[in-house]
């Protein structure tokens, strides 16, 4: 472990350095607090042993500066019998331990430095483990969010899926009922989609559904919900929207789809890709979510059987 010995007495500094070098430490020396601080800022030593009384910056001042720069560094203070009160002050300021000069035994230097080095290693390991745990928690949180998104979104179109829509629809009708609001449901289906798949291939059919999803969401409000109901069926839930406004949205969407240059659209019976739409609204067409959905489905069926490429309402 790298270690910095700080003392303005060259002889004592040399003795401590020799003992610790023999113990396997890589020892750097500084003859003053100022020199030590400059060296520490260049190389953040995990362990510093410093005299408490030096000309210029004191050991306490150096300790304070070191702890501000790197709180994990372990500092051992060297003091005389006459300055034990200062050693206690240093401990309260964050020093790990202290050595009393003159040393009763050079082995004491090794023992204190060894304990301080072990503390420094444990602190470093704990910090690394904490950082790993923090990263793991962040990755787990991100993974959980991704799984949550996958659980409520359709894998092909990235729209909400059937399950999410049904829950959102029930909640929106209940909210509309509680606050006396209106909401509308647009139920749509791609006309002759099986023929499109048979003629152009399933990959092209998937591309069509993804493009349709983009056309659906281009002009939606944040509060609106677009979902893939199943196969080539899609729904739009429009909160606080009367039926007249929903009809405008449905007609605009029907027009955009009919005008979009889908590859292979010319092979369709109408010479282009089209959608049929049924529009229902609460409370006009039903008093709960299942009733509204069934009503919109009936209107969609009527549109499909009346020539397709149209919006039907009651």
Automatic annotation (TrEMBL):
Gene Ontology CC terms: plasma membrane
GO molecular function list: diguanylate cyclase activity
Database matches in InterPro entries: CheY-like_superfamily, Diguanylate_Cyclase, GGDEF_dom, Nucleotide_cyclase, Rev_trsase/Diguanyl_cyclase, Sig_transdc_resp-reg_receiver
SUPFAM superfamilies on file: CheY-like, Nucleotide cyclase
Record field: transmembrane: none
Domain Response regulatory, first and last residues per copy: 2-116
EC number: 2.7.7.65
Catalytic activity: 2 GTP = 3',3'-c-di-GMP + 2 diphosphate
GO biological process, one term: cell adhesion involved in single-species biofilm formation
Coiled coil stretches, renumbered: 119-153
Modified residues (4-aspartylphosphate): 51
Domain GGDEF, residue spans: 181-314
Source organism, top-level taxon: Bacteria
Keywords: Coiled coil, Phosphoprotein, Transcription, Transcription regulation, Two-component regulatory system
NCBIfam families referenced in this protein's UniProt entry, alphabetically: GGDEF
Protein name per Swiss-Prot or TrEMBL: diguanylate cyclase
The species this protein was found in: Citrifermentans bemidjiense (strain ATCC BAA-1014 / DSM 16622 / JCM 12645 / Bem)
């Amino acid at each position: 472990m790298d270690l910095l010995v700080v003392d303005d007495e060259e002889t004592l500094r040399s003795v401590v350095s020799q003992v610790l070098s023999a113990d396997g430490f890589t020892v750097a020396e500084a003859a003053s607090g100022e020199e030590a601080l400059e060296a520490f800022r260049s190389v953040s030593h995990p362990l510093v042993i410093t005299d408490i009384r030096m000309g210029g910056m004191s050991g306490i001042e150096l300790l304070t500066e070191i702890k501000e720069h790197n709180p994990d560094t372990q500092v051992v203070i060297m003091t005389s019998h006459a300055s034990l009160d200062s050693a206690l002050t240093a401990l309260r300021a964050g020093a790990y331990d202290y050595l009393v000069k003159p040393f009763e035994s050079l082995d004491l230097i090794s023992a204190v430095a060894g304990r301080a080095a072990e503390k420094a290693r444990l602190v470093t390991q704990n910090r690394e483990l904490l950082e790993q745990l923090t990263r793991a928690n962040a990755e787990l949180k991100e993974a959980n969010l991704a799984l949550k998104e996958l659980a409520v979104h359709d894998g092909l179109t990235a729209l909400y899926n059937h399950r999410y829509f049904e829950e959102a629809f029930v909640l929106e009708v209940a909210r509309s009922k509680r606050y006396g609001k209106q909401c509308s449901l647009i139920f749509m289906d791609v006309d002759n989609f099986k023929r499109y798949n048979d003629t152009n291939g399933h990959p092209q059919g998937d591309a069509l559904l993804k493009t349709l999803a983009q056309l659906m969401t281009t002009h939606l409000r944040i509060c609106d919900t677009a979902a893939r109901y199943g196969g080539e069926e899609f729904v739009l839930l429009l909160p606080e929207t009367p039926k007249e406004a929903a009809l405008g949205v449905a007609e605009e969407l029907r027009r955009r789809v009919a005008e979009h240059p889908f590859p292979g659209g010319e092979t369709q019976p109408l010479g282009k890709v089209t959608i049929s739409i049924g529009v229902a609204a609460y409370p006009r067409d039903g008093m709960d979510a299942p009733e509204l959905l069934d009503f919109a489905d009936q209107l969609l069926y009527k549109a499909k059987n009346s020539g397709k490429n149209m919006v039907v309402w009651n």
